[in-house]
Structure formats: C-alpha cells, structure tokens
Please model this.
Amino acid sequence: MFLSILRTGLNFIYPPICLHCGKRRDENADFLCFSCWNQIKVYDPSLDIRQVLKSRMTGRVNIDQNFTLYWYQHSSPLKTLFQNLKYQNRKEIGLFLGKFLGGKIEDSFESGSEPAFLVPVPVHKLKQIDRGYNQAYMIALGIAKKSKKVVIPETDIIIKTRQTDSQTKKDRISRWKSQQEVFGLNPEFTFDLNNRQIILVDDIITTGATLEQAGKLILSKWPKAKISIATLALTE
Model:
C-alpha cells in the first residue's frame, strides 16, 4: 500500500511523458501514450502481399524463418523509440520490445527441439563503449526472457572488425559494399553450429545487407546451420 501511495505521489510530481508527442501518458502505457502506440503499423504476414520480409533476403542467404513486429515508417512514433534505444541510453526499450518478439518465436518452434542460438548483430567495440551497450543484444535479451526455446551464447559468435558510418541514408549497393569485411567469426567460439537453429537479431531490416553478411559468415564455417532472422521492424 505504501509503494502504491509513493508511486501515485511520484506520478503527480513527475508525470510519465510520452517519448514521441510529449504529452502525459497513462502509467500503464510503456514509453508512449496509447494514441502514439496506435499509430505504429503492426506487421501482419498475411497482409504482406508483396512478401517484402521474405523477398529482402531471397537469393542472398537461405533463411529458415523470419520474425518481425512492425513496419518502420519515418513519421511513426516507432522512429522515436528507436532513436531513444540507440542514442538516448534507453536500453530498456530493446528489452521491452524483445519480449514481444520472443512471444512470436516461442509459438513457432516445436517443443522438445534443441534451443536456438540468438546472435545479436554486433557493433564495433568503440561504438559499444560510447553507447554503453549493443541495442541488438538488448533485443536478444528480451527474446530470451520471454522464450525458453532460445539461448544467448556466453561467447560472441560474430564480432565487428571495422567501424562503419551510419547505414540509414545509404542505398542497397552502398550498404552492401560498406558491409564487406566488416564482420568476422570470433576465434574463441568453438561450438559446432551445424544442424543448429541460429537466429540473427537486429533492430530493423532495410535492405538486408547486414543480415546477409552475418548469415553468410556463419554458413561459411557451418554450412548445415539453419539461419533465421528476428527484427523489431521492417522498412516499407
């Protein structure tokens, strides 16, 4: 009862504010007000007539399963969430959304099978030091908290060997070129991944270049691995 009274008092003095519109939000609404949450376009595979999610990776790397939550639109409150996750030290956003992604994954894999390995797309160590964390790892952590059918390896499978500029304003060819020789396999990871399910985790799919390079790198050493991808959003 005391905690309830304290929470009420704090909410009165420091009311929870929507990260996008700046208006007061209900304390039961996480990060955004209900109005802004409703503006985010949910990804429904049955309505994806052009099969955008699947086609982004077709012919580039063999993908077993695709998981995503939303369509990414530049005017959407989702963009604000991503900016806060990546640049404002709001890593709890990745954890929160990762749990929803974990629910999708939990429902897709058969019970009794060996746990899938979650592989967060890495960031360069200097960027991680500056930011304090890898946002893809926070998403993966949220997935793992929700689903018992996945694990995060204690040792990184993929490492980023070279720092790159922001990819958000580059076209598909430029993205592909910039990702060449950026990733490397971690020599300290010695587990055999052949015949295991590997889920590459990232925040957003645009051209798919980053996930393509990560997937090809894993398959170059473990050609019998099964690659799936899990992201929070897909650009329209």
